[in-house]
Amino acid sequence: MTSQTVIQVRDVRRSFRSPKKEEGWKGTLGLLVSPKYESHEALKGVTFNIESGSFVGLIGANGAGKTTLLKILSGLIPPSSGDAQVLGFEPFKRPIEFRQSISLVMGQKAQLWWDLPAVDAFDLIRAIYEIPTKTYRDRLGILTDLMDVKKHLNTQIRRLSLGERMKMELIGALLHWPQVIFLDEPTIGLDVLAAHKLREFLRVFNQQEKATIILTSHNMDDIERLCSRILILRSGEMIYDGPPGKLTREGELMLRVRLMQTPTSEELQAVTGLSAKSIDLKTGESAGEENEDGSDLKSIYFHVKQDQVASSLQKLMSKYQVVDMGMEEQSLEKVIQRLYEDERG
Question: What per-residue confidence (pLDDT) applies to 249?
């Protein structure tokens, strides 16, 4: 491991075994007397390195293995095989030096004491991590300023809004100034303003403190605005590791067309000469789009280069009646949506 590499993952696999129940009362009895088990492989040979100060997005559909990977890296569970190191430590051994250097924030799980005011909860964290009083006060001042929550410090955690609670959770997770931060859906359930403030806080903290951050989120705004690198898991396998811009196919546009006819993908391929991957019949329908004219005609999206737009339109108009058309830039959200649909499909 080089001095700049803080996270190193080599062929990490993780399997879970769960009891399999047959239907009916016989199945319930069999589960008690002679249970049968089935295995599920959550991670399948994942490999990557992360450098110090990186802000990395971890993306995948539900069940892709994101949370399992974060639990392995934070030391909550061990890998079934392979090797994972964080800051030179084997996470599952959880030495005190490791625990003092990392933090895990899970948006769906509260980690502070709900019955305490936030300031008292933070004081307990100060005692647990043995943070010197002056250092603690300085850090608390920095974090509460960045989060704009000073006025809520004496409010009981349970009485705060979801957005304010999430801010307090983050402050509690960062008071010991971790070098590596794992964030699992930190903006889930937040309104637009609260999510924006949370993202801005994370961006500033990453830049100022050079903390290494791995973020999982289904909100592509989180990923696009914060992460210079993304890792995509699909069914436990790493299918992409690189910058978001490369994934959205720089220079590619989406030609949106509505036709009076309803051709198949194969027919559109024959007419336009485009590949099946360049023609998307599902996007408009899955996005729940509504047409201004009240019609139920669905949009068809063609993923084309700039110099292919005119010829593709000409070919379509020679065969079909075009109701309306438009151009859209590629978005990370739609690219990821296509990847998820490929997995299901």
Answer: 61
